[in-house]
Prior knowledge:
5 strands, 5-stranded mixed barrel, alpha+beta
Amino acid sequence: MEEDFLWAILGLALVIVELLTGTFYLLMLGIAGFGAALAAWLGQPFGVQAVVAAVVAAAGCYGVHLYHAKNAKGQMRPIDAGQPASFEGWVDKAAGRARVLYRGAPWEARVEGEPEPGATVYVVATHGNTLEVSTRRPA
């Protein structure tokens, strides 16, 4: 198969997968694949094709990163923010890590303040499966 066709297939596959994720990073990688396909169609050697793909991918991903960072404060507040949880105990007090009971299940948490076991803490944010909690209710 022709190199330009292979690059175009790779770019199309990445764009299709991007439709399932919605992060825009894979879209940039797909566009980089199309850029490399254009370079191959113009008769450039594989090294030039790879450099075009890398440069377009790096620039695109950096642009998406800047966009996400710029608009992070405009995002909607997490649904869990302000919800009460019960402080169970410290896992590592020096690092601020503890276990809390939230929605009937134990969660790993990063704690602001120094609550006692059984105290009510409030969810500030979620980071994956770790809660960020505080002794003060967020505004």
